[in-house]
Amino acid sequence: MKNNKIALVTGGGRGLGRDMALRIAAKGLDVVLTYHSNKTAADEVVKEIQALGQKAIALKLNVADIGSLDGFVAELPKTVQSAFGAEKIDFLINNGGFGINSPSFAETTEEQFDQLLNVHFKGVFFFTQKMLPLLHDGGGIVNISSGLTRVTFAGRGAYASMKSAVETLTKYLAKELGARNIKANVVAPGAIATDFGGGNTRDNPQVQAYLTSITAIPRIGQADDIGGIVAFLCTDDAKWITGQRIEASGGMSL
What we know:
By secondary structure, the chain is of the alpha/beta class. It has one domain (about 5-195, about 220-250): Rossmann fold (3-Layer(aba) Sandwich).
């Protein structure tokens, strides 16, 4: 029996990552999802995926701890073999991350900068690099960026700069991995109502009113506005798409 394709989603236990994992599973793929600290939430997503008829496992991973990545990657083939009867994966979704609310560029600290750098760029760079031998030819990489690389909001300069770096990296991945028929694309969400960045977009009526006023489709985004796009990029329908940035923001600041 032919094995299902497998996607690995970092930060798959909550928010956008949860919806990505579920929507990917709904396309008939098995899922490895990683979590930073909330094992309970990740295990719940595994159960939801299994209820859809797909296989899933949850693994602890901190992409900012570069020294731990070799050990994670070395163990992954055995773990994937045990769970799915395969040794490699087909799609890598670099989603895991967090937001920092800094009032302005002038008040952003070096500590905040380094935290964002280590997770959103350095972690993505080296985790992807180390995962390349475990990625099937013909597979794909989806990096999650942000609408903030196109539009600006005070205090988000450091975060957006990391995401801009990831967008540039993605084009290089598409070019360098094209000979292996590996696609690399960016999905850039707009303002989404999740717990990201302390849940400010989800919970603050003033923020919601402003964001709605500058968005062509006048509402705040939801997690399920993003997961389906990532899932699509993990199918053969997207086999000729690479090196692209797909923004899903409802038309913010057009």
